[in-house]
Amino acid sequence: MFNGKVIEVVGAIIKDGDKYLIGQRPAHKSQGGLWEFMGGKIEPGETPEQALKRECLEELDLEIENECVIDSVIHEYPEKTIRLTLISCSPKSGSIPKALEHQQIKWVTRAEMDALDFASADRELIRKQIP
Question: Which has the higher per-residue pLDDT, 116 or 28?
Answer without folding.
Answer: 116
